[in-house]
Amino acid sequence: MGTIVCYIADTVRCAKPVTFMSNMLYACSILYKTKLPFIIAFNKVDVMPHTFLDEWMKDFDKLGQALSLETTYVASLARSMSLAMEEFYQNIRSVGVSAVTGQGCADFERALAEASKEFQESYVPFLLEQRRDIDERRRRQVEEQVQEFERGLDRAKRARDGDDEPEDDERDELAGLAAGVRNCRIREF
Question: pTM value?
Answer without folding.
Answer: 0.65
